[in-house]
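Appendix B. One record, verbatim.
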Amino acid sequence: QVQLVESGGGLVQAGGSLRLSCAASGRTWSSYGMGWFRQAPGKEREFVAAIRWPGGATYYADSVKGRFTISRDNAKNTVYLQMNSLKHEDTAVYYCAERARGAFGSDSYYSRVEYDYWGQGTQVIVSS
């Protein structure tokens, strides 16, 4: 059973930075990519960023483009989300997710249903 464990959330002032980590364990088949999503109170879970492999192409929601960076450390089976210039509206629970069923289709990395495994989430609070 694949497990995804997020860490790195916390309380930060607006303009600050956080780095989220998502460590994967128990993987017994190929992985095709990872994504980060977030869910604010009263809102739907929304796409933040994704990275696909092979190739390492990355994708971002417009709201975080230029501020957030997704990356991967193969040796550690870990994906990171570096979040800079944080805004109050970035406050949410952040979830990582893994694509295991096959390569992403065109633009499908934006959709929650395209991911097969999810972490438990880590809370990010940005004070204004």
